[in-house]
Amino acid sequence: MSKRLILGIFVAAALGVGSLFAAYRLWPDGGRTEAQPDIMMEREQLMLEEEAKPRLEGVVNGIRLYSLDAEAALQRKDACSDASRDEVEHLTMSDVAGTPMEIVPTYLPAGAEEVAPMWPPVACKGVVVSVEREWVIRSKGHFSIAHRQGEQAIAIDASADRVSAATVGGKRAALVKPLAPDGFGYSMVIVAEDFGLTVIGASGLPIEETVKIAEGLK
Predict the structure, then answer these.
(1) pTM here?
(2) Which of 149, 130, 147, 154 is nearest to 195 (CA)?
(3) Are 28 and 140 within 8 A, CB to CB?
(4) Which of 87, 98, 146, 214 sits between 20 and 30 A of 109, alpha carbons compared?
(5) φ and ψ at 47, to 5 degrees?
(6) How many CA atoms within 13 Å lie on the side-chain side of 111?
(7) Residue 23 has pLDDT above 90, yes or no
(8) Cα separation of 184 and 177, whole Å?
(9) What is the pLDDT of residues 192-209, one digit of tens each?
């Protein structure tokens, strides 16, 4: 593996993306050709500037946002918060079909290919608390769509100037813009729902595309 691609993977991890696909934003060809030094310097500078800013913690559009390292008492509450191990059940996508927790997108960016999600649907005490689907866009990035039951709260890692209130599909929402307009870094669209939240997280997509994904959900 080249030093260039190793550095790209390290950058992805540092951003909290959790996937090497974020490295493609530094090198759209996956690291097979020489990266442009000016782009590398620009993006490294963006990361340094973001790291130096205070993290946002507070309420935006009625949605509580807290830091990734928040103590347990501050983390969001759902049906799993006080469930015993015996009360936790792993489900399949067919188990949630036809329910409000089913994820049915009507818009996907060009080239999106669905992959197996990291976690299966989960229920606690007979209540479905988490459903997630994931897609990759080769040589560009990736995104996920998740339904989260419970409190309208979520952990984020972003400075205040990246976060704003919005209305998405007629619902209250909070947006987390990527570090650069082309989608470098990551973005989030967090939508308030009767059951809790819909969360679209993306790397390598402009915020406008991430919003379109959210607006296209049934």
Answers:
(1) 0.82
(2) 149
(3) yes
(4) 98
(5) -65, -40
(6) 11
(7) no
(8) 10
(9) 999 999 999 999 999 999
